[in-house]
Structure prediction request, 532 residues.
Amino acid sequence: MNKGKRSNVPSRVLAMAAALAAITPAVQAEESSLKVDGYLRQELSWNLRDWADTPGYDDRRKLSMFRTTVRVNSEWKATDDITVVGKFRASRETKTGFLRHLEKMGANNYGSADGRGDIMDLYNEAEIRELYVDFPLGDRTKVRFGKQQVAWGETDFFAANDLVHGFNLTWRSFLEPANEELRKPNIMAKINVDVPELDGGVEVLIRPGWDRDKDIGTELDIYGGRWSSQPYAGVDFRNIDPYDYKNKEGNYRKVTGGVRWSGVAKDINYSLSYLNTFYPSPILNASSTLGLFGMPTTPSGATTVGRSNSLGVAGDIIYPVVDVFGLTASGYSNLADAVFSTEIAVIKDAPYQILAATPTPISQAVAPGFDGIKRKDVLAWMFRMDKNIAATQTWLGTEKPMFFSMQLFDKWIQDYKREDGLINSVGWGGRTKEHSFLLTGIFSLSYDNGRIRPEFVIGRDITYGGGFAVPSVTMELSKNLRWKVEYDKFWSDKWRDGTQCTYPNAANCDNAGLFGYFHKRDQLYTSLTYLF
Prediction:
């Protein structure tokens, strides 16, 4: 069974990638049909607060990430009609003192004989990000086949329709502005058919199920690593609930896909879509028997789905398949001098963790969420306004109007009943409400002909409380060199106190929401990127 680990990246991989970057100009000069570009990036981050769940260790000001990445993109025009695209990435990190401490606590130790794993297996990687071929079929049809990324949606944050792929959030959580760096590419056939008579076109996706098991679903840091959620630093949950990629509810070999119509109607860009895909959030499939801590095996009170019982002693992690019916629309308003867009998705039978009125013994001993799964239809939507504000040229001395974007998100659970006991996530006690509202804003400025770009991103969880603020500045030091500095701030009045949440009260001791998961996880981040 796949254990979710990544292999170490040999130093020669980075050396080869750097060499390829060095010879890029020569390659382009000799062969115009081959284009190569990419970047070499150094990233560092520091903890700004002492974590609450690393007893006896002061995390403040500790270097949490020292990451070197090489990205190479190639495009080869084999004929006038056929193009081959390859995108490759290799990363290697230094094991900082902070990571060593998490490793000693038990981070990423699943399957290790001595209870001690190598935390660097989470972060070092060398992979083919994308490798596909584009070719036409007749005058109207274009085909893209191979490992690729497809984005369906209108938002950069908490997506409603952009559910084609999962994301890897183990090293940077949701803060990475370039979604393509976190998105998990899949092997697919994408077929686009132009229909000019109706001012639109059809896009069909077919994923044949040839991917690796770990290429489905959004991957959270359940390994106890750098972006583990408070209070679970150093805890590798796979020891009691490993991944089950072959569960009948979401076998990674299952053929999935979708169809989307995109068009223009009276200056409104719109799309209608249907998608059969893996639900992105990991779902805990609780064990139907109880045998923790040497206790005799007895019924737990939970019902295991997709199998007679789970693979792990307390459960396993699955990505159930769901159907998603989507709508997007965007257009410019002269009255507001702004672009408005919306994204609506009806997710049929979305899975939720539940907390029973009388929690199972596993939930009482470990954390809420080990009581089973309940499915509900969900209407997820987003409304966004993008506007350029010229007043900042006078108020703040910007060279051009400030870009401002505001987005409001909601997940509206249909046939909602409080007695169903839905919770937001396994491991925390926050009860899911009928509506879950989240508001975000982006303020982007520009100085010195675009060479200095300050930005401020802020978000507020209206329903459950808490939020985040991310001020940053990106500086163009030269034609090819970019330097970014960023502060990641989180706050919430509700979090889980790991010292108090113990048996028999582990299931009912907190009401933590999304930003309670990031309690005391503030970071200072910087990156230096050389583009070639």
